[in-house]
Structure formats: C-alpha cells, structure tokens
Amino acid sequence: MNVLVTGGAGYIGSVCVEELINQGHSVVVIDNLQEGHREAVLFEAVLYEGDFGDKKLLKEIFEAYKIEAVIHFAAETTVEFSMTDPQKYFINNIVNGITLLEVMKDYGCKRFIFSSTAATFGEPEYTPIDESHIQKPINAYGESKLMFEKILDWHHIAYGLKFNAFRYFNAAGASAKLGEDHRHESHLIPIVLKTAYNVRLDKAVRGLKVFGRDYPTTDGTCVRDYIHVVDLARAHILALDNLNSHPNSKYNMGNGKGFSVLQVIEISKKVTGVDVPYEFAEKRPGDPAILVASSDKFRKETGWSPLYPDLEIIVKTAWEWHSKYPDGY
Ligand code: UFG
After folding, report:
1. Residue 56, number of CB atoms within 10 A of its CB
2. What is the pLDDT of residues 203-241, one digit of tens each?
3. Does this model's pTM top 0.90?
4. Closest CA to 88 of 98, 101, 99, 75
5. pLDDT digit string (tens) for 234-262?
6. Active-site residue set
7. 182 C-beta closer than 6 A to ligand 1
8. Hey, whose CA ends up nearest to atom 33 of ligand 1?
9. What CATH fold (topology level) applies to the domain 188-224+257-324?
10. Which residues pair with 167 in a beta bridge?
11. Does domain 2-172+227-253 fall into CATH 1.10.150.20?
C-alpha cells in the first residue's frame, strides 16, 4: 500500500515507517522537522519537509503518489505547553488536521489512522480505562485530540472515511536503529536514562525531578502504563487492514499494567546499574494520578498482542539506544 505518514520523522512515526517498510509498504513522509529528525527517516521512504496543514504541498504529494492511506502522527503533544498556549494546539491539531482530511477527500483517499491520546480521558473514574470510559480531558492537548476524534466520526458518517484512532498511553523503548530524541525532553524514561548515562560518565548531573509525592497511589507518585514503541507501530499496520472490518473504531493502547514514577526509577537502576539521583518537586499541571489502559478491544478485534510487555525490557531497549546515541540523532 502507498502510505503517507505525517510526523514520520518523529519518535513513534519513524518507528512506524520502519515497520511499514519491513512489511513491504511504500512510504511518503511529511514532517516539518521541528520535532522530528531527518536522520530518523529510513532512506527507503520519501521525505517531504513541510507542514501537514500546507494544502499546496499536500496536493503535490497526492498528485505525485497514489496515496491509499494516511497515518497521522504529526501534532503538538506536550501537555505542559498546551496549558499555557492552547491556541497553538487547536490550530495544529484541529485546523491543520481538517486541511489534511479535506485533501484526502479531494483525492478519494478514505483510509486514516489517527494518533490520539490517553489525555482525552482526563482523571479516570476507574482503571484500567476501556473505550467506554467517559472522556473529560483536563488539559488542552487532550481536548484538541478529542475534538479531532469527533471530527473523524462525522467524516465517517458523511463522507465514508474509514478510520482507527489510537489513544496512546505512554510510548517508550526503541528499535535497534530508532529511539526517543525530543528537542525539549519532558518524558520520564529518557530523562532518567540521560541522567543515568551522565552519572556513569561522572558528569555533574542535575538530579531528576519527581513531580508530586502525594498522589493517591501506593507511593504517592503518578502511575503510568508504558507500551513499547515497536508494539505501537505494529498496531498501526494491523489497523490498515482492520479498517475493512472496523471502519470507525477507537482503541486504547497500553499494556494494562501501571508503574509509579519511583518504580520506573527503580527498574532503570536495575537496567543501567546506576542509582539515579532525584528530588521531589511540585506537581506538574495537567497530570492525572493514574493512567492505565485496557487494550482488550484491539487485542480481540485484530489478534494484536505486545511483543515487549515487560517494562524492564522496554527500558533496556531504550537504554541500548541511548547508550549508542547519547547525543541523539
Ligand atoms: N515525570 C517526572 N519527572 C520528569 C518527567 C516526568 O516525575 O522529569 C512524571 C510525570 O509527572 C508523569 C510521569 O512521570 O507522572 C510520566 O511523564 P511523561 O512526561 O513521561 O508522560 P505523560 O504521562 O505526562 O505523557 C504521556 C504522553 C502524552 C500523553 C500523556 C497522557 O507523552 O502525549 O501520556 O496523559 F498525553
């Protein structure tokens, strides 16, 4: 299949491109390289540098390639920034997304896989969170993704768009070649591993900050459900076929098991052999206490199951990548 991947130079997008290529698909990537890295796009894929909201560029791509499906990763994704500049999130995640859907409609492309987020749920009323859980986002990032999920519903009803939306919980880990390298790093596992790497080199390190210590969890720190990035990427490729039998489905993607921030630090110590220094800090705005997914729906409907459900293995793959590329791409 000819697949257009927006944000294919980013963390999850690039690993998905790798899996698509491994499975024999032809891939065109559009990425403005603000967060993504040219080096993360395998040479077998065609890379267009630009915005996915640029109608002219999109038309050029749709004219040049017979795009049969779009996997849409590109987005503003940092919860924290979405609280101070929500407009940016609504413009990129909604307005530009609508432009993409419009061009797809003009060219008769009806297959769409969307990167949504656990942040669409807000504070969970129960865990694990399944797909029937109420969606009440507590940050503008989650709100923007939820709005776009609803737009997809209407495109399905009115124009026959087939879509699957994945609510990612916490993507982590790396493939042999591709890993997590954000220009502004806010994610727990890469921060812990970078700190561990610097401690090992005897570099002066700033201690890791653990945000909040009085959450209603066993040790007072936030609990998250970590899913290996390769398992997530594989899910997208299964979804391309799944669209035929489930043309308007939304799925929660995680491992169904929660780990607190302190537990992640402990597992990282086991993997790296480094006792990472940390201190407690204020809670981060927009952070729910516990986010754990039930992915039973996707498992049942597609037969998907994670190859790397064990957090220690997930952290190990991330550590191998960080040790190989300590300065990123
Ligand atoms: N954390 C720290 N210190 C840090 C970084 C993170 O204590 O230096 C904590 C956070 O407060 C949170 C946990 O570690 O409790 C995980 O934080 P991440 O930033 O790694 O991930 P989030 O759970 O905040 O975010 C992820 C995705 C978002 C998505 C969100 C769903 O990256 O895109 O899950 O809420 F929206």
Report:
1. 8
2. 767 779 999 999 999 999 999 999 999 999 999 999 999
3. yes
4. 75
5. 999 999 999 999 999 999 999 999 999 99
6. 141
7. no
8. 77
9. UDP-galactose 4-epimerase; domain 1 (3.90.25)
10. 116, 252
11. no
